[in-house]
Amino acid sequence: MLKILKEENLHKIFDVAVVSKGVTGLLEVLGAFLLLIVSPEQLNNFVAGITQYELSRDPDDYIATHLARVFEHYSGSTQFFGAAYLLIHGLIKIFLVWGLLKNKLWAYPSALAFLAAFMGYQIYRYTFTQSWSLMALTIFDAFIFILTWHEYNFVREHRQHNS
Length: 163
Hints:
The protein is mainly α. It is built from six helices and no strands. Helix 5 packs antiparallel against helix 6. The longest helix has 31 residues, at 7-37.
Protein backbone atom coordinates (compact mmCIF):
# COMPACT_ATOMS: atom_id res chain seq x y z
CA MET A 1 0.00 0.00 0.00
CA LEU A 2 2.78 2.45 0.88
CA LYS A 3 4.45 1.93 -2.50
CA ILE A 4 1.48 3.35 -4.42
CA LEU A 5 1.44 6.62 -2.47
CA LYS A 6 3.83 9.43 -3.27
CA GLU A 7 6.47 10.08 -0.63
CA GLU A 8 5.15 13.61 -0.11
CA ASN A 9 1.66 12.27 0.63
CA LEU A 10 3.06 9.71 3.05
CA HIS A 11 4.79 12.51 4.97
CA LYS A 12 1.52 14.44 5.17
CA ILE A 13 -0.40 11.37 6.35
CA PHE A 14 2.34 10.67 8.90
CA ASP A 15 2.19 14.25 10.21
CA VAL A 16 -1.62 14.14 10.54
CA ALA A 17 -1.46 10.76 12.33
CA VAL A 18 1.25 11.99 14.70
CA VAL A 19 -0.61 15.22 15.45
CA SER A 20 -3.77 13.19 16.15
CA LYS A 21 -1.77 11.13 18.65
CA GLY A 22 -0.53 14.36 20.22
CA VAL A 23 -4.08 15.67 20.57
CA THR A 24 -5.19 12.43 22.22
CA GLY A 25 -2.17 12.69 24.52
CA LEU A 26 -3.26 16.16 25.59
CA LEU A 27 -6.82 14.91 26.14
CA GLU A 28 -5.49 12.00 28.23
CA VAL A 29 -3.53 14.39 30.47
CA LEU A 30 -6.62 16.57 30.83
CA GLY A 31 -8.72 13.47 31.58
CA ALA A 32 -6.23 12.37 34.24
CA PHE A 33 -6.54 15.70 36.04
CA LEU A 34 -10.33 15.58 35.78
CA LEU A 35 -10.32 12.10 37.30
CA LEU A 36 -8.25 13.37 40.19
CA ILE A 37 -10.56 16.28 41.01
CA VAL A 38 -13.90 14.47 40.56
CA SER A 39 -14.78 12.04 43.35
CA PRO A 40 -15.89 8.48 42.54
CA GLU A 41 -19.31 9.31 44.02
CA GLN A 42 -19.70 12.36 41.76
CA LEU A 43 -18.72 10.31 38.72
CA ASN A 44 -21.08 7.46 39.66
CA ASN A 45 -23.92 9.95 40.16
CA PHE A 46 -23.16 11.62 36.82
CA VAL A 47 -23.16 8.30 34.93
CA ALA A 48 -26.34 7.19 36.69
CA GLY A 49 -27.95 10.49 35.78
CA ILE A 50 -27.07 10.34 32.09
CA THR A 51 -28.01 6.66 31.69
CA GLN A 52 -31.16 6.56 33.85
CA TYR A 53 -33.57 7.96 31.27
CA GLU A 54 -32.25 5.82 28.42
CA LEU A 55 -32.32 2.66 30.53
CA SER A 56 -35.90 3.40 31.63
CA ARG A 57 -36.90 3.54 27.95
CA ASP A 58 -34.67 0.67 26.78
CA PRO A 59 -33.14 -1.54 29.49
CA ASP A 60 -30.96 -3.23 26.84
CA ASP A 61 -29.44 -0.03 25.41
CA TYR A 62 -25.86 -1.01 24.51
CA ILE A 63 -24.08 2.21 25.47
CA ALA A 64 -26.07 2.94 28.61
CA THR A 65 -25.76 -0.61 29.97
CA HIS A 66 -22.03 -0.69 29.31
CA LEU A 67 -21.48 2.72 30.92
CA ALA A 68 -23.51 1.66 33.95
CA ARG A 69 -21.59 -1.63 34.19
CA VAL A 70 -18.19 0.08 33.92
CA PHE A 71 -18.98 2.51 36.73
CA GLU A 72 -20.83 -0.01 38.90
CA HIS A 73 -17.60 -0.99 40.69
CA TYR A 74 -15.79 2.29 40.27
CA SER A 75 -13.78 3.17 43.37
CA GLY A 76 -11.00 5.41 44.58
CA SER A 77 -8.33 2.85 43.67
CA THR A 78 -9.83 2.43 40.20
CA GLN A 79 -9.87 6.20 39.88
CA PHE A 80 -6.20 6.50 40.90
CA PHE A 81 -5.16 3.75 38.47
CA GLY A 82 -7.12 5.37 35.65
CA ALA A 83 -5.67 8.81 36.36
CA ALA A 84 -2.11 7.46 36.62
CA TYR A 85 -2.52 5.44 33.42
CA LEU A 86 -3.92 8.40 31.48
CA LEU A 87 -1.29 10.80 32.82
CA ILE A 88 1.69 8.54 32.06
CA HIS A 89 0.33 7.44 28.69
CA GLY A 90 -0.55 11.02 27.70
CA LEU A 91 2.80 12.50 28.75
CA ILE A 92 4.75 9.81 26.91
CA LYS A 93 2.64 10.43 23.79
CA ILE A 94 3.20 14.18 23.96
CA PHE A 95 6.95 13.73 24.42
CA LEU A 96 7.22 11.25 21.53
CA VAL A 97 5.03 13.38 19.25
CA TRP A 98 7.31 16.36 19.96
CA GLY A 99 10.36 14.22 19.04
CA LEU A 100 8.74 12.89 15.87
CA LEU A 101 7.62 16.30 14.67
CA LYS A 102 11.15 17.63 15.30
CA ASN A 103 12.62 14.64 13.37
CA LYS A 104 14.64 13.50 16.39
CA LEU A 105 16.10 10.16 15.35
CA TRP A 106 15.73 8.63 18.84
CA ALA A 107 11.97 9.31 18.75
CA TYR A 108 11.24 6.87 15.93
CA PRO A 109 12.40 3.63 17.59
CA SER A 110 11.01 4.89 20.92
CA ALA A 111 7.61 5.52 19.33
CA LEU A 112 7.71 2.13 17.60
CA ALA A 113 8.47 0.38 20.90
CA PHE A 114 5.75 2.36 22.68
CA LEU A 115 3.19 1.56 19.96
CA ALA A 116 4.14 -2.12 19.93
CA ALA A 117 3.84 -2.37 23.72
CA PHE A 118 0.45 -0.70 23.80
CA MET A 119 -0.85 -2.66 20.82
CA GLY A 120 0.16 -5.81 22.70
CA TYR A 121 -1.66 -4.56 25.80
CA GLN A 122 -4.73 -3.61 23.73
CA ILE A 123 -4.83 -7.08 22.17
CA TYR A 124 -4.49 -8.61 25.63
CA ARG A 125 -7.38 -6.46 26.89
CA TYR A 126 -9.40 -7.38 23.79
CA THR A 127 -9.29 -11.04 24.87
CA PHE A 128 -11.34 -9.99 27.92
CA THR A 129 -13.60 -7.32 26.46
CA GLN A 130 -14.10 -8.19 22.78
CA SER A 131 -14.51 -4.45 22.34
CA TRP A 132 -14.74 -3.43 18.68
CA SER A 133 -13.51 0.06 19.58
CA LEU A 134 -10.38 -1.39 21.18
CA MET A 135 -9.71 -3.44 18.06
CA ALA A 136 -10.27 -0.36 15.87
CA LEU A 137 -7.76 1.56 18.00
CA THR A 138 -5.27 -1.30 17.64
CA ILE A 139 -5.68 -1.30 13.86
CA PHE A 140 -5.21 2.49 13.79
CA ASP A 141 -2.07 2.11 15.93
CA ALA A 142 -0.78 -0.59 13.56
CA PHE A 143 -1.27 1.84 10.66
CA ILE A 144 0.66 4.51 12.57
CA PHE A 145 3.35 1.92 13.38
CA ILE A 146 3.81 1.20 9.66
CA LEU A 147 3.89 4.93 8.82
CA THR A 148 6.42 5.56 11.61
CA TRP A 149 8.62 2.70 10.42
CA HIS A 150 8.51 4.07 6.88
CA GLU A 151 9.24 7.63 8.03
CA TYR A 152 12.13 6.41 10.23
CA ASN A 153 13.74 4.63 7.27
CA PHE A 154 13.21 7.70 5.07
CA VAL A 155 14.75 10.08 7.63
CA ARG A 156 17.75 7.79 8.22
CA GLU A 157 18.41 7.38 4.49
CA HIS A 158 18.03 11.11 3.92
CA ARG A 159 20.50 11.90 6.70
CA GLN A 160 23.00 9.33 5.42
CA HIS A 161 22.90 10.83 1.93
CA ASN A 162 23.34 14.35 3.31
CA SER A 163 26.30 13.42 5.53
